[in-house]
Design goal:
Order of helices and strands: EHEHEHEEHEEEEEEHHHH
Mean pLDDT: 91
Radius of gyration: 19 Å
Structural class: alpha/beta
Number of domains: 2
CATH superfamily of the largest domain: Spore Coat Polysaccharide Biosynthesis Protein SpsA, Chain A
Helix content: 25-40%
Distance between the termini: 55 Å
CATH topology of the largest domain: Spore Coat Polysaccharide Biosynthesis Protein SpsA, Chain A
Largest sheet: 9 strands, mixed
Number of helices: 8
CATH architecture of the largest domain: Alpha-Beta Complex
Low-confidence stretches: none
Number of strands: 11
Length: about 280
């Protein structure tokens, strides 16, 4: 055992027991909670996690606090969400990877499989997206208030295993509440032009998936009718309809999230201009 785990939580009683049950390979689990009002704390402690709390301001600040203000048993830390599962195959791959990682390697990226009603949403999502998740805590900084990016001056590696993501497991009511927060934070970021650096069309061909994804987001947010385009592209052109009946629900909800961002941006611009909504 040579990897610690950091899990951010807010009212995750539906997810945290299962998440912790899949971490038997880890001997140092930290839960950083945003003052949950449900039974998250008791369940986390019962599951063997060390429990901390911090008032939430944004995701990057929360993760940076966890990485840099909490002491871990191991140098390498897996950043995990409560609705995600680290499979045994991924756990074994991660442990082997950090054992042989050179000193200048600071971050491993991995992919994630999103599930709804037991079905992997392979085609109606932006799979494969590479996420920075396994980090040397002292050498990585998290940026971007929502849909975070992991930055390091060290080398970056890639893992072939997947995280499993059950984003609807807390229930659709909780999903709407969470997406309301996320869409507000994304809209605020767009209104403040908080993009952490310039971009160009050359970035679309960059080997770094984070740079490429940022450029794609810039283009996407400039398109009229973006939520409808999102639905048509992922559900029809990428073959999302082949992912089963659950894919239609997933695609509609994801398009609705993008619509929430758009209308909140429009609201913000009118308020900045002193106009009624």
């Amino acid at each position: 055992m040579n990897i610690s785990v950091l899990i951010l939580t807010l009212n995750e009683e539906a997810n945290i027991p299962y998440c912790l049950s899949k971490l038997t390979w880890c001997d140092d689990i930290v839960v950083l909670d945003s003052f949950s009002s449900d039974n998250t704390e008791n369940l986390a402690r019962e599951g063997g996690a060390r429990f901390y709390q911090r008032k939430f301001d944004n995701f990057a600040s929360q993760r940076n606090y966890g990485l840099h203000e909490i002491e871990f048993k191991h140098d390498w830390v897996l950043m995990l969400d409560a609705d995600e599962e680290a499979t045994p195959e991924l756990a074994e791959e991660m442990q082997q990877a950090v054992q042989t990682a050179p000193d200048n390697l600071a971050l491993f990226r991995m992919r994630r499989k999103d599930y709804l009603f037991g079905q992997w949403m392979r085609r109606c999502n932006a799979y494969p997206i590479w996420f920075g998740r396994l980090v040397r805590s002292a050498k990585v900084k998290v940026m971007r208030a929502v849909n975070e990016e992991y930055h390091t001056e060290g080398e970056i590696g890639e893992l072939q295993g997947h995280l499993l993501h059950y984003s609807y497991n807390s229930g659709f009511d909780a999903w709407f509440t969470e997406q309301n927060l996320h869409s507000s934070m994304e809209a605020d970021r767009l209104l403040s032009n908080d993009d952490h650096g310039r971009w160009s069309f050359i970035d679309l061909f960059d080997r770094d998936p984070t740079v490429k994804r940022r450029a794609l987001k810039h283009i996407a947010f400039s398109l009229p009718g973006r939520p409808i385009i999102y639905f048509i592209f992922y559900y029809i052109f990428r073959g999302g309809f082949l992912d089963g009946r659950a894919a239609l629900t997933h695609s509609i909800l994801r398009a609705f999230y993008e619509y929430m961002v758009d209308v909140k941006v429009k609201e913000g611009r009118r308020r900045q201009a002193g106009l009624p909504v």
